[in-house]
Amino acid sequence: MSVPRRFSYLLNEIHFRQLNKSDLEDYLPLVLAAYASARELNIHFDAGYATAEQAIAHLSQHGVYGMFDGEKLIASVTLRYPWGPLPGPFGLPHLGWFASDPCRRGERLGGKLLDWLEREILMGQLRVPAYSLGTALEHPWLRTFYKQLGFEPQHTANLGKGHTTLYMKKILDPALHDRWLTGRSL
What we know:
Distance between the termini: 68 Å
Helix content: 25-40%
Radius of gyration: 17 Å
CATH topology: Aminopeptidase
Structural class: alpha+beta
Strand order of the largest sheet: 1-2-3-4
Strand content: 25-35%
Number of helices: 6
CATH class: Alpha Beta
Oligomer: single chain
CATH architecture: 3-Layer(aba) Sandwich
């Protein structure tokens, strides 16, 4: 018995989960496709040039989360921890390798993935006051995109990658963030 076409969307459901190395076959092509526009702009983000070996190491060393439509991986984001091998600049969780399916532009996949990550992982499990990310200052639209998601520019750095990195931070809990800042200055 076939399902009428107009109801086929009910068969696919959006869900989220942490990725691991068994997801490599879906993960690496998504990341490389998502970073194609950065490569065209000659902006060197590590994710845009990742090999299978680098992606396996990345999946093993960080919290990498995926958004799925049914069985299809449609977006992913990495959470680098302050205690891990690539901590961010603020002593907070730091995003990296943020990717969404370029064929699904306009569906706000990245925003939906970050909404889930903030609610379930950052606030629900880790209870962090804020988190950060870095992007290329020279990129024509990423800074605006991240500002629309609630990130605020903090400072820039030259990491030797051919662009200036703009670090941005998003505060999730202002009161907890104030207490965290006070604790850091002691």
